[in-house]
Amino acid sequence: MAKRKINWYKYASPVNFYPIAGRMIPWFAIPAAILFVIGLYVGFIKAPPDFQQGEVYRIIFIHVPAAWMGMFLYIIMAIYAGIGWAFNARLSSMMASSISITGAMFTFLSLVTGSLWGKPTWGTWWVWDARMTSTLILMFLYIGFISLQAAIDDPRRADRAGAVLALVGVINIPIIYFSVQWWNTLHQGATIRILNKPTMAPPMLAAMLIMLAACWLYSIAIVLYRLRCIIVERERSALQVAAAAA
Amino acid sequence: MKLSEFFSMGGYAFYVWGSYLVAFIAIGGEVVLLWRRRHAQKQAGFVFPESNTDEKTS
Amino acid sequence: MFRWMVQRDLTLAWRRRADVMSTLFFFVIVVSLFPLSIGPETQLLRSIAPGVVWVAALLASMLSLGRLFANDYQDGTLEQMLLTPQPLYLIVLAKVLASWLVSGVPLALMSPILGLQFGLPGNSLSVLVLSLILGTPVLALIGSIGAALTLGLRGAGVLIALLVLPLYIPVLIFGAGAVDASINGVSAQANLSLLGAVLAIAFVFSPWATSAALRISLE
């Protein structure tokens, strides 16, 4: 029986990965949509009102998944960027660039929903607690990465510079988080504001996890879709030559 | 839960529905913007890699 | 080689004294803007002094970053530095050291005068100087990464700020926190130790990142 050798390296080429990404997208997009609907159903219909916060706590079903996606996507972005730099793999770097936008979107969403949750529960639109402040700084890190890549014309320099910045950012995140916690505990003073996490009844937890899964699936689908757009743009000259030769 | 309770969210309608509206705009916006980018690529005559034609080259 | 590099950069900086002085003047002016905008009430000024002086030091440090590699980049010397057999790590460290001596140290030495303007008590002034002496090298080290990444780009000045200010935040928190602690009669020891730890980490890792960034920007 002949052994079929799969040349995996072939798929490291952007042009070859393009159709694979295209076939993958529906497998993530459709389940994502379904899970969003289920998650919202469980969160709004099945989950009871919170003892302390009443109905307003239901914001967490989008706020918490968005915050987590913002954080996870940054780390994954940094990993792809690092791989793209270390192995000179263009496709990896393109993935990082694609992820950056979605990550920034989720972080922004987390800030806005956090603020909308804060106003009725803490009384102000913004509170400088450790979590919100760290999320704000994460937003700055995303903006830095996106701006740097936008400012550099040469795509490979943009890829590599982004990789350095993302890796420096990832290493700094624990330091930044620690320093913000430190700062927060030092300045507690008269007003102690703690983010009131409702005690989680099972349907609440279920809804949150379902929404998180939905966000993950959505992220994969949208990142692959954007990746395809990036491939078309960056491989333009190679594709034109191939088309002319065919 | 009665329908009117559902919409008013215990008086917090603005915050709860506001949050989900922003989420809808953010996520939907991302999808729409990408779709438009794709459409612009087609209009501008970008060449797209063909699926499953790499079997042709040996 | 290291010493030679530091001396060279110091000499060049001396020839452009005006650039160096302007960073210092910027620092002084920015600090002075706050009483003008907030009012001269002593209690208020004393409480915001650590933050104000530190943020001004941050911004002034950032201004000096544009000069770190730009001049050598423009006349081609930087490329030569990449080609020497000397490790780029050391060259970077030398340039950062020279830059710090020329911008960070004067800031730190100037700060007590500004602290007095804000009504800071004596021991807080010494904590202020110490925090800046520990913190400004970190600003220079981390800032050098941003300077290397944005080499030759249009809009590099503002872009450096976007890249580097989030990374500066821990330094700001510990530095201003140290002075704040001393105003409130608490020991500044913890904050200063943390600042020292950040300095140690930055000292080891950032020249490496800056070297990598230089190679990326120059190929």
What order do the helices and strands of chain B follow?
HH
* pLDDT averaged residue by residue of chain C: 92
Query: Secondary-structure element order of chain C, as H and E?
Result: HHHHHHHH
The low-pLDDT segments of chain C are none
- Structural class of chain C, please? mainly alpha
Number of strands of chain C: 0
Give me the oligomer status. heterotrimer
| Number of H/I helices of chain C | 8
Helical residues, percent of chain B: 55-70%
Q: What's the tally of helices of chain B?
A: 2
Dominant shape of chain C? elongated
Beta-strand proportion of chain B: under 5%
What's this, in brief?
The complex is a heterotrimer of chains A (246), B (58) and C (219). Chain B is mostly helical.
Main traits of this protein?
heterotrimer, A: mainly alpha, 7 helices, C: 219 residues
Walkthrough of the structure:
The complex is a heterotrimer of chains A (246), B (58) and C (219). Chain A has seven helices and no strands. In chain A, 77% of the residues lie in helices and 0% in strands. By secondary structure, chain A is an all-alpha fold. The longest helix of chain A is centred in the N-terminal third of the chain and has 33 residues, at 14-46. Chain A has one domain (58-188, 204-245). Chain B has a domain at 16-43. Chain B is 64% helix and 0% strand. Chain B has helices at 3-8, 13-43. The relative contact order of chain C is 0.15. Chain C is built from eight helices and no strands. Chain C starts with a helix and ends with a helix. Chain C is 88% helix and 0% strand. The interface between A and B is large, with 44 and 28 residues.
Describe the secondary structure blueprint for this structure:
The complex is a heterotrimer of chains A (246), B (58) and C (219).
Chain A lengths: L13 H33 L13 H27 L3 H33 L7 H22 L3 H32 L15 H33 L1 H10 L1
Helix pairs in contact in A: 1-6, 2-3, 2-5, 2-6, 3-4, 3-5, 3-6, 4-5
Chain B lengths: L2 H6 L4 H31 L15
Chain C lengths: L1 H14 L1 H22 L3 H33 L2 H7 L4 H30 L4 H28 L6 H28 L5 H30 L1
